[in-house]
């Protein structure tokens, strides 16, 4: 019952937060400088009557709240409107580009989890020169922004060595081709977060090693590998799991830069172009999707934390 009550409460909080976020996103685009009608004219001069006709067609001349509530009502029905730039439904744009971005983010997340946990554990357990190497490597990773990593990887592995494509997603050539095309973007996207997760894992494991239960287990002659796996690494997963929201949000935000650098053609690149051209419906739809994914990840993390660490109760993280 506590689980159900907590889940319902969090879902209601998510709905209210998403509603507030929708208002902020819509208001930010409404207040942004420039006029989407000018883009629709393609830079051509037009008479006041022509401008008025365009604004009336797209309801750009309506009061702010009238525009917002009309848009919100359509969104609740699954209609994100029509793109001003591409002259097509936003839902169709997202359906064609979202799978590419989700594959890119999924590949990057896999790299982050595997390498981040492995490096953090390796440094904490081995210590000495191994730990120093991990610290130096993670410092380099954390200090390298995604767009810089994208340029370096593109120049070395795509241009100089020719091992990977320098652009595109390979979406029309099968799944294997997509993975090949998205490998460099995924590495560029993951590099910073690999360093971050490795640091968090290392610190959490070092702290867990100082616990009394670890000392008791060693005094009883429990093999060290069992202590590391059952007592140290498992107890370190709590702090690691709490960084999941930060990791996912960083991946979603940085994909805008990485997709643009590699011309991937996902929703990140679409968001960058839509913001430049003041394509209101597209920007608003993508922003809501990103916010929704971020809140969903945090919700799942809150549900998983008590399973990973029984000392944590439902809702403890949100109250902290």
Give a description of the structure.
It is a single chain. The protein has helices spanning 2-31, 36-40, 48-57, 64-76, 90-126, 128-142, 146-160, 175-209, 212-219, 224-242, 244-262, 267-276, 280-308, 316-319. By secondary structure, it is mostly helical. The protein folds into two domains: 2-76, no CATH class; 90-319, MetI-like fold (Orthogonal Bundle), CATH 1.10.3720.10. Helix 5 packs antiparallel against helix 6 (128-142), helix 7 (146-160) packs across helix 11 and helix 10 (224-242) packs antiparallel against helix 13 (280-308). The chain is globular, with a radius of gyration of 24 Å. It starts with a helix and ends with a helix. The model has no long low-confidence stretch (mean pLDDT 81).
Topology:
Elements lengths: L1 H30 L4 H5 L7 H10 L6 H13 L13 H37 L1 H15 L3 H15 L14 H35 L2 H8 L4 H19 L1 H19 L4 H10 L3 H29 L7 H4 L1
Helix pairs in contact: 1-13, 5-6, 5-8, 5-11, 6-8, 7-8, 7-11, 8-10, 8-11, 9-10, 10-13, 11-12, 11-13, 12-13
Q: How many DSSP H or I helices?
A: 14
Number of domains: 2
Structural class: mainly alpha
Query: How many angstroms does the end-to-end distance come to?
Result: 22 Å
The biggest sheet amounts to: none
- Rg, please? 24 Å
* Annotated CATH architecture of the largest domain: Orthogonal Bundle
Specify the CATH homologous superfamily of the largest domain: MetI-like
Uncertain runs are: none
Provide the succession of SSEs. Answer: HHHHHHHHHHHHHH
Shape: globular
The number of distinct β-strands equals 0
The fold-level CATH name of the largest domain is: MetI-like fold
Mean pLDDT: 81
Strand content: under 5%
What percent of the residues sit in helical stretches (DSSP H or I)? over 70%
Which CATH top level class of the largest domain fits?
Mainly Alpha
């Amino acid at each position: 019952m506590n689980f159900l009550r907590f889940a319902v409460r969090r879902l209601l909080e998510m709905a209210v937060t998403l509603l507030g976020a929708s208002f902020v996103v819509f208001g930010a685009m409404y207040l942004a400088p420039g006029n989407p009608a000018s883009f629709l004219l393609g830079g051509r001069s037009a008479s006041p009557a022509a401008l008025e006709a365009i604004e009336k067609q797209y309801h750009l001349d309506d009061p702010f709240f009238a525009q917002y509530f009309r848009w919100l009502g359509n969104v609740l029905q699954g209609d994100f409107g029509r793109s001003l730039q591409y002259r097509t439904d936003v839902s169709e744009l997202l359906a064609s580009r979202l799978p590419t971005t989700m594959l890119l983010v999924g590949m990057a997340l896999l790299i982050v989890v595997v390498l981040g946990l492995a490096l953090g554990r390796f440094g904490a357990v081995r210590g000495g020169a191994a730990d120093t190497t991990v610290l130096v490597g993670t410092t380099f990773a954390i200090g390298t922004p995604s767009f810089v990593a994208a340029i370096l990887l593109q120049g070395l592995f795509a241009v100089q060595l020719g091992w990977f494509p320098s652009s595109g997603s390979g979406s029309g050539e099968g799944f294997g081709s997509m993975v090949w095309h998205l490998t460099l973007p995924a590495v560029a996207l993951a590099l910073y977060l690999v360093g971050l997760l490795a640091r968090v894992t290392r610190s959490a494991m070092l702290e867990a090693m100082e616990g009394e239960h670890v000392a008791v287990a060693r005094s009883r002659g429990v093999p060290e590998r069992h202590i590391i796996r059952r007592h140290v690494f498992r107890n370190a997963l709590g702090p690691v799991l709490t960084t999941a929201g930060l990791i996912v949000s960083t991946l979603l935000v940085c994909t805008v830069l990485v997709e643009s650098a590699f011309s991937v053609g996902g929703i990140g690149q679409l968001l960058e172009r839509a913001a430049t051209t003041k394509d209101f419906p597209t920007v608003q739809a993508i922003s809501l999707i990103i916010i929704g994914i971020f809140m969903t990840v945090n919700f799942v993390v809150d549900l998983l934390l008590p399973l990973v660490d029984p000392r944590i109760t439902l809702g403890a993280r949100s109250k902290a």
